[in-house]
Amino acid sequence: MLVFVAACGEHLPFRTPLPFPTPGQHDLVVLLQPGPLTYASDDAGAAAGLEHDLIEAFALELGVGVQYLMATPAELEERLDKEHYHLASAWLSPRAESGLQATSPIFETSDVLAQHEASLPLNKIEQLAGKTVHVMAGSRQAATLQTLKTSIPDLSIVEIAEGDILDLLEQIGKGRVEYVAMDAQLEEIATQFAPFLRTTLKLSEKQAIVWLLGRQPNTELAARAAAFIDRIRHDGTLARIEDRYLGHVQRLTQVDVETFLGQIETKLPKLRKWFENAERITSLDWRLIAAVAYHESHWDPNATSYTNVRGIMMLTEETADRLGVSNRLDPRESILAGARYLNLLKDGMPEQLAEPDRTWLALAAYNIGPGHFNAARNLAKVLKVDANSWFDMKQVLPLLAQPKYYEKVKSGRARGGEAVILVENIRSYYDILLRNESALKPATPRIEGVIGINPSRAEGPGLKLRR
C-alpha cells in the first residue's frame, strides 16, 4: 500500500515513539525527500527512486504498508524535530549534535564543487575565497559550505529553494551560475544532462548515508532496520537496487551526450510524430522508442549495416517481412515495426518477469535475436543465477562469445556483450529524453519503477500528487 500524508509541518496524531509497524494495524511512516537519489514520480504518477525502493523492500520484509510524508530540503531539518515518523530517508548523513539516532551506513558519499569544464579549475579549498557558490537550501552541502565559511569569511553562499539540483547544475551551462556544491554520487547522473560539468574540488571527506530514526526510535524497529541493512549489503539486494538507478550512467561519454543533445534539437522534431504515432498504437513510451532508434541508427532513416539490417530501427529483412514492412527505409513503417517487435519480445517473456527487467531483457533480445537470448537464459539457469533479472543477465550475455559456453548451446556464438552495451546506452538516452521531452498526452501506461524518473517532476509540499 502506498499512502501519501499531507505535509503541513504540524504534529501528527501518533504516539511517541510510534508503534512498531504491524500488518493491517500500523504502517511504516517515512519522512522522505524528493530528489534524483531518493524519490520522484514518472509521468503516469508511478513512484520510484533508489531510497524509495529500499524503503519498499524494508516494508515488504516487515509485511506492512508505507505512509510517506514528503519534505523539501529546506524544510527537512525543522520537520525532523516537529513530526513523528519511523524513519527519515533523504540521502541523509548523521550529525551527532542533532540528537537523532541513525541506522548503520547504507552508502558512502562526499560533497564536491561543480563548475564548467571551460573555467579555471579550483583544486584547493583556499581558492573559494571571494567566490560565490550556489547550493540547494537545507541540503547537506549547504551545511558544509557554512562550515567552510567560518575559515573563509569572504566565501559567498547562495541557497536556492526552488527546483532541484539538476536544474541548478544546468544553470552552469547557461553561464548564470559559476559554482555549485553537490553530492559526489550525483556526478555521473548529472553529466548525462549537463556534460560540461567538472568536479575537481572535494568539499568534504566521505560521509555515511543513513536512515534517521528520530530522537526516540522504536527499539524493535531499529533492530529490524539494522538486520535489514546488513542483509541487503551481503545478499546482493542493495547492489541490484543500486544498479537499477546507477548501473547505466557510466556508459556514455561526454561527446556521446553532447552529440545526442544536439540531435534532439535538430533531428528529433522531424521524426517525433512517427514516434508518438507508434506510442498510440503500441502504448510504449515514444521516448523509449526514440531512444532505441537513436542507438540503432542515430535517427538516420537510410542507415544500413554490413549485415543488411536497415532503416531507422535497423530491422532485419526477416523481421520486416514478419511485420509487413514494405520499405525498411520509410521511417514511419520502420519505427512502428520496431515498436511492435519490441512489444512482441516483451510479451514473449515469462509472465512473472516484472518491470523494468522485462523491458531491458526484451531490448537485449531485440539486439541478438530471440534464439541467442533464450540460449543465454538457459545458460543463466545452468550457472544458477536469475534469468529474470537484468542485473544477472548482463553478466551472462557476454559469455555467449566464449567457446566454452557457446559450444554448449544450439544457437552458437553471439555477441552478447554488444546487447549489454545497447541496453545500458538506451537506458541513458531514455533518461535524457525524459528530462528534455514531454510525454504524449493523454498519458499511456508506463514502465513502473524504472529508469527515466524525472527529478524535476519530483513531488513535495505544494505540488500536486498524481494518484
Q: Estimate the mean pLDDT confidence.
A: 86
Q: Please give the domain count.
A: 3
DSSP summary: helix tally: 17
Beta-strand residue percentage: 5-15%
Rg from Cα: 24 Å
CATH architecture of the largest domain: Orthogonal Bundle
Q: Label the overall shape.
A: globular
Low-confidence stretches: 1-15, 446-467
The CATH class of the largest domain is: Mainly Alpha
Which structural class matches the secondary elements? Answer: alpha/beta
* Major beta-sheet overview: 7 strands, mixed
Number of E-type strands: 14
First and last CA, distance: 13 Å
Amount of helix: 40-55%
Examine the coordinates and then state which fold CATH places here, giving the name of the CATH topology of the largest domain. Answer: Lysozyme
Please provide a brief summary of the model.
By secondary structure, the protein is of the alpha/beta class. The protein has helices spanning 50-62, 73-82, 140-149, 165-173, 187-190, 219-235, 237-246, 254-266, 268-282, 286-297, 317-322, 331-347, 357-368, 370-382, 390-396, 403-406, 416-436, and strands at residues 2-5, 28-32, 40-41, 47-48, 66-70, 87-92, 101-102, 107-109, 111-116, 132-136, 156-160, 179-183, 197-202, 207-214.
Structural write-up:
The chain has 467 residues and is an alpha/beta fold. The chain has 3 domains: 2-104 and 208-246, D-Maltodextrin-Binding Protein, domain 2; 111-205, D-Maltodextrin-Binding Protein, domain 2 (3-Layer(aba) Sandwich), CATH 3.40.190; 254-450, Lysozyme (Orthogonal Bundle). 41% of the residues lie in helices and 14% in strands. It has 17 helices and 14 strands. The protein has helices at residues 50-62, 73-82, 140-149, 165-173, 187-190, 219-235, 237-246, 254-266, 268-282, 286-297, 317-322, 331-347, 357-368, 370-382, 390-396, 403-406, 416-436; strands spanning 2-5, 28-32, 40-41, 47-48, 66-70, 87-92, 101-102, 107-109, 111-116, 132-136, 156-160, 179-183, 197-202, 207-214. Strands 1, 2, 5, 6, 7, 8 and 14 form a 7-stranded mixed sheet that branches. β3 (40-41) and β4 (47-48) form a beta hairpin. α10 (286-297) packs across α17 (416-436) and α12 (331-347) crosses α13 (357-368). It is globular. The model is unreliable at 1-15 and 446-467 (pLDDT under 50).
